[in-house]
């Protein structure tokens, strides 16, 4: 899983957990009503028995919390390794983009742009070849 | 009365909750509320699974690939997230149960020791 697909997943999972807790409370309330409690009391008791709703949600989320950073670091490390392994290609790419940038005088930060392009290429090669390129390279 | 019943309940050890959840799911897929009800009922009301531990555990088990989850309608026509044990989860359950047996036997032997071995 890449960093970007993880971030897309994260918002879906947060919504998912809120829905899950709510469905727990609804079922617990329904069971209590079936046992003869009034709907208001049943809901109140179900919430009390569940405990601290925001805390439970927080603790559960913590399990995913730092994963985004780990994934981002893994992506950055991977990109850097790709650039390093293909030194010749990287240098050629950076130089060619720099020359192109210098030829167009309006663009002053040619080096920055060139490095960015090379990094993007490395990232794209990962996306295109997926996990196989990664394990083959390692 | 509720209070004394509550005090008689035993708090679950870390690690045993995972095993009990997996065991409960072996009887069929269930949602979080169903799992806590099943554990409570099959332990004759002795074990109360705190929701504060249940949901983090379920999400951890899902991350490990030991359970899979799916949103479905329950019997009472409520939308709920149902968990199902995976093949990997069944393997984990067997390993957990074995480790549990070893731990119980070890603690038992310590409790029975008369001190002469030390």
Characterise the protein shown here.
The complex is a heterodimer of chains A (138) and B (118). By secondary structure, chain A is an all-alpha fold. Chain A has six helices and no strands. Chain A folds into two domains: 8-84, no CATH class; 86-128. Helix content of chain A is 88%, strand content 0%. Chain B has 118 residues and is α+β, with helices and mostly antiparallel strands. Helices cover 58% and strands 14% of the residues of chain B. The longest helix of chain B has 26 residues, at 87-112. Classes of the chains: A mainly alpha (138), B alpha+beta (118).
Q: Note the beta-strand portion of chain A.
A: under 5%
Low-confidence stretches of chain B: 1-8
Assembly of the depicted chains = heterodimer
What is the ordering of alpha helices and beta strands of chain A?
HHHHHH
Low-confidence stretches of chain A: 128-138
| Largest sheet report of chain A | none
Shape call of chain B = elongated
Q: Cα-atom Rg of chain B, whole angstroms?
A: 17 Å
Structural category of chain A is mainly alpha
Beta content of chain B: 5-15%
> What's the total count of β strands of chain B?
3
Helix content of chain A: over 70%
Quick tags:
heterodimer; A: 138 residues; mainly alpha; 2 domains; 6 helices; 0% strand; rod-shaped; disordered C terminus; B: 118 residues; alpha+beta; three-stranded antiparallel beta sheet; disordered N terminus
What is the fold's blueprint, element by element?
The complex is a heterodimer of chains A (138) and B (118).
Chain A: H1 3-34, H2 39-50, H3 53-65, H4 67-85, H5 87-103, H6 110-137
Helix pairs in contact in A: 1-2, 1-3, 4-6, 5-6
Chain B: H1 2-7, H2 16-26, E1 30-31, H3 32-42, H4 51-64, E2 67-73, E3 79-85, H5 87-112
Antiparallel strand pairs in B: 1-3, 2-3
């Amino acid at each position: 899983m890449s960093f970007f697909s993880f971030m897309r997943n994260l918002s879906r999972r947060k919504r998912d957990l809120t829905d899950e807790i709510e469905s727990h409370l609804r079922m617990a309330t329904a069971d209590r009503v079936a046992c003869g409690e009034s709907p208001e009391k049943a809901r109140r008791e179900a919430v009390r028995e569940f405990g601290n709703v925001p805390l439970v949600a927080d603790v559960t989320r913590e399990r995913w919390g730092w994963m985004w950073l780990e994934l981002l670091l893994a992506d950055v490390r991977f990109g850097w390794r790709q650039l390093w392994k293909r030194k010749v290609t990287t240098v050629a790419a950076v130089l060619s983009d720099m020359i192109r940038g210098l030829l167009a005088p309006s663009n002053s930060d040619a080096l920055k742009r060139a490095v960015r392009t090379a990094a993007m290429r490395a990232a794209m090669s990962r996306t295109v070849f997926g996990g196989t390129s990664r394990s083959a390279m390692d | 009365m509720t209070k004394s019943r509550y005090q008689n309940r035993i708090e679950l050890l870390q690690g045993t909750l995972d095993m009990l959840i997996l065991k409960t799911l072996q009887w069929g897929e269930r949602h979080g509320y169903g799992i806590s009800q099943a554990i409570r009922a099959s332990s004759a009301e002795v074990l109360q699974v705190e929701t504060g531990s249940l949901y983090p555990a379920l999400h951890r088990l899902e991350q490990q690939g030991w359970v899979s989850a799916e949103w479905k309608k329950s019997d009472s026509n409520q939308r709920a997230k149902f968990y199902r044990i995976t093949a990997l989860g069944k393997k984990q359950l067997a390993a957990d149960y074995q480790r549990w047996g070893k731990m119980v036997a070890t603690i038992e032997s310590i409790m029975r020791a008369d001190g002469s071995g030390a």
